[in-house]
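Example: Alkaline phosphatase family protein.
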Amino acid sequence: MAISPHEPPAAPVLRSWRAELRALLSWRRILNRLRAVLRSALVTFVVLTVTLWLMPGVESNDIVDTLGLVAIVAGVGAVLRPLLLLGITALGGWGAMLLGVIAQVVVIVVALELDPANRISGLPSLVITAILAIIGAAIVDWMADSGTDDTFVREARRLMRGVRRRQARLAGGPVLTFRRPRQGAEPGLLMVQFDGLSEPVLRWAVRAGNLPTLGHWLRSGSHTMRGWHTGLPSTTPASQAGILHGATRQIPAFRWFEKDTGKLMVTNRPRDAAVLEPRLSDGRGLLRDGGVSIGNAFSGDAAVNLLTVSHAALPGRSARGWAAFMASPYGFTRALVLGVGEVFTELHQARQQRRRNLQPRVSRSGAFLALRPASMLLRDVNVSLIAEQMARGAPAIYCDLVDYDEVAHHAGPARPESMRQLESLDRMLGVIERLAPEAARRYHLVVLSDHGQSQGATFRQRYGESLDEVVERFSAGDEAEAPESPAESEATEEPEFPEPPVAPLLVVSSGNLALVYLTKFTERLDRAAIDRQYPRLIRGLAAHPGIGLVIVRDADGPVALGTSGSHRLSDGTVQGIDPLLPYGPRARYDLLRHQEAVHVGDLVLISCVDPVTEEVAAFEELVGSHGGLGGWQTDAVLVHPARWPVTEAELDGPDAVHHQLVEWLAMLGLRTQPPAADDEALQLEHEARKEIFERPGSPRLSRTHDG
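Written out as structure tokens, the predicted fold is:
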């Protein structure tokens, strides 16, 4: 700014300070601060009064003394919390989680120790009183907000403003400013994944009016909803390998066996995900240009990875969103307290299912009691991390929220418990929308899912035995003597991560998809070779009522076998009754594409599917499952700004979604190199699909959904 010749040199500085004072002393800011202080004081007074009344041996609970204690708590918190936040930020990771809880206890303990009335004495009593006070404060705050996320939003806004002011100082801005940063003008893309949500379920929930945020977007015309087909396998790691890296074929299932190394791979194990990441990455992932991955299986070549499984680390010192969430009394501690409430809610809902004899259902005890509150905690952490990265101005952010998927597995994809989790995710979108004005960019929101879920009684519930037991029964006494191969011997030669010996016939299940491996052979076997080893196996599995499809390589290519017929996938030749009919018109192409995946089993099994209810029989003990074909598990969803162009009328497969998202990034100017129009891999994919579906005589069915 130019200085007028009649203006003293100090005038610009004085004007700047006046602007700062006006920002600091604005009536709206003063009113909001007074309201926050009064509320905090009232909550602290109520909580301390009740806590001291509950504590045995407390002789006096005078109101004046308690008001003095409230002032002491406020003073101690004002002094200690910034210091503890510095410690939490420095520790990062697990240390931040531990110190985050301790910080809240320390503030109350120090305040009680300084209490002139000296009503609590002794460290054990002080700690117990502090814990009770913290629990009470979390409950009262939640009730005061009427179960909303207002407090969480206020804390997130404070975090975002702090991050942006710090960035401004590092960029040469003023050391101290009271003016709130304005929203940035540059575009950004925020992609939020609702894990396990099918397009029909989301469409029904919107029509029912249960999702106010998404419903408003769709009804106002700002966004539009479209379904997309996941193909096989319909599971998170495979979908994210495609969405984030365009490399779906590297992952044949959620779990699989690798004959060349003799290892069983499980994609939610960090060490296995770390092995897979280099196989997926070619340096051109969805998030390569300064993007951020939050809570995903793989990184998408992101510059920043937070809670990403393949990187196997908690956020470190640079993630202030992690530290702020852990340090805040409205963050980790509040989530822990409300998480305990989720456990009791789960116990009540499971009991209701049993009393009403609701079918199908599975046990909802054990590890799931911990998974449900953990997923809620992870959701709040993820949103806090999103807020921080929006304040930092990350050009692209991709975050996976798993609440709905975890509950739907055990309760059912459309049951009230699952819909409640979906409603909470919709509230999180509302939180993000409220936080958008504090961001360093003008973010566009895209909401998508990685797969759906299909409901049904499990395979064991229906037939009284597991798939492993069925395979063992059909292979008993049939195994021919075969020399030991490196695959079997090397399976136990990993000193760092020892694994149990691998069975000669290994069944690896993922939902209602199972891969069967003959582990004594390093190569993939065809039908004739399997029949020589286990003459009754293939025929027995194909005839079992709980197994809808057995896919095996034959002399003329892969063939799908059913109870009353077969379907040769390469040319569509059908003998008897077509076993693919219950699985829809895409089944043939999905199975062909899956046969090209690396490390696919010698046999691929898909459970039966009811043609009326579209229920499947999961090989795992899950009432809501995914991984294979049948039902809504392959019906994912994409919600995006309505005016954005979509290259393909039909998005088929996660790789196609990847290319679409890359094109949108390029459209926003967030991609350093626009996607090539003649991408060879995508072109081959289109040609293969066109050849299959346009060949004369190819089966065509119209897919219908119940309701």
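The longest helix spans residues 63-91.
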